[in-house]
């Protein structure tokens, strides 16, 4: 190490290795922040009320999701269309303010797959002093519930009082909920009397409709019998053992796509990785230098060749190339006369005739070539005509020698 290099190294506060790892850690942290900020909204659990699987209010279903987790496998949450196409029992909890288009999309994607639709029942208002809590106001009008029910099956809620006090849910006897909702069905899966179904199956589909949510919602699970019945109900509807999935798309908690997600998900992930790899290679290439730096060259170089090139460029940009043929012919005539010793003062056609007389093999050869140069309009024609004039002059000079 030379003395100057050693002096520079002594004055550097950090080594190159430390700088490299510092830059690498910064880039890694920036990439992690970008990914986390991109996907954070998808996995953030909002604290909301309503009849959703995330709600801890009385009409919510967070208790059922936790109950399934404690007694078996944790349930999944469907946030996208690809999640909805998964082969597992999907529990769709409907609230009065759900998205009808989202429900239609669920019905379309779940054709031939086990799906439990839970109808709404109560009209509520949020308790502002307790985030996520709901205050029950009254039962929803039948026309509102029937609107949602009609989107799934050709059925309507039944009217009249229920005479039974208890119902059987897959072998578990539970008390009948207050103001029980039911539909008419000759072959109910869960009955509240003759022809009165609380759980019914849609014809020619593996869709099930639970008419009364008070059998599985948070308010119901405070009753041990209903908590046990909720598990048996889920087991009864499952085709095979495994986790259950709750739908979130109906409540607006689905996965939203934006430009950042397009950059880090297929099919554009390959393009993003390619750009990053190219940037890394460019950075590594910039760390080293091959040879001394190149000096900046003049915009207009010195010398005759540079003058000719510059003049040609200006003529090309000015669009005057078509006018050069006759001018070049005139210069070639004067040059040929001077080289071959033409009489002084001879010009124009007289000079052409004198030059033609020098050619014994091809009388009029110079004039023919000169006319071709005058008629040239393109670069190719001018180049060919100039070559012929130059060759004619060089041949005549060779004959003189």
From TrEMBL:
Keywords: Membrane, Transmembrane, Transmembrane helix. It comes from the Bacteria. The chain crosses the membrane at residues 19-40, 268-288. This is DUF4350 domain-containing protein. It comes from Mesorhizobium caraganae.
């Amino acid at each position: 190490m030379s003395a100057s290099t050693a002096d520079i190294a002594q004055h550097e506060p950090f080594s190159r290795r430390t700088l490299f790892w510092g830059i690498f850690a910064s880039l890694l942290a920036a990439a992690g922040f970008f990914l986390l900020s991109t996907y954070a909204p998808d996995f953030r659990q909002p604290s909301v009320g309503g009849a959703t699987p995330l709600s801890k209010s009385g009409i919510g279903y967070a208790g059922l999701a936790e109950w399934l987790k404690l007694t078996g496998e944790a349930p999944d949450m469907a946030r996208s269309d690809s999640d909805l196409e998964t082969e597992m029992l999907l529990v769709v909890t409907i609230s009065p303010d759900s998205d009808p288009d989202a429900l239609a999309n669920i019905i379309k994607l779940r054709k031939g797959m086990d799906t439990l639709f839970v109808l709404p029942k109560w009209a509520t208002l949020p308790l502002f002093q307790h985030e996520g809590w709901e205050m029950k106001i009254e039962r929803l009008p039948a026309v509102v519930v029937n609107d949602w029910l009609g989107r799934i099956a050709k059925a309507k809620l039944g009217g009249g009082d229920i005479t039974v006090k208890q119902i059987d849910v897959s072998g578990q006897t539970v008390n009948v909920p207050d103001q029980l909702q039911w539909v008419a069905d000759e072959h109910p899966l869960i009955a509240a009397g003759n022809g009165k179904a609380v759980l019914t199956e849609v014809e020619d589909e593996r869709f099930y409709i639970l008419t009364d949510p008070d059998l599985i919602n948070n308010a119901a699970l405070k009753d041990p019998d209903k908590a046990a019945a909720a598990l048996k109900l889920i087991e009864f509807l499952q085709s095979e053992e495994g986790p259950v999935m709750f739908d979130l798309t109906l409540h607006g908690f689905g996965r939203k796509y934006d430009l950042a997600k397009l950059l880090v998900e297929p099919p554009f992930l390959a393009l993003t990785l390619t750009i990053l790899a190219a940037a890394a290679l460019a950075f590594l290439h910039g760390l080293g230098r091959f040879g001394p730096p190149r000096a900046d060259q003049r915009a207009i170089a010195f010398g005759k060749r540079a003058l000719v090139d510059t003049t040609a460029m200006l003529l090309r940009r000015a669009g005057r190339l078509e006018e050069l043929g006759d001018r070049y012919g005139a210069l070639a005539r004067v040059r040929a006369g001077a080289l071959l010793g033409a009489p002084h003062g001879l010009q124009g056609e007289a000079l052409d005739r004198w030059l033609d007389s020098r050619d014994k093999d091809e009388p009029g050869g110079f004039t023919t070539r000169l006319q071709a140069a005058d008629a040239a309009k393109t670069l190719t024609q001018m180049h060919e005509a100039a070559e012929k004039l130059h060759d004619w002059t060089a041949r005549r000079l060779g004959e003189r020698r």
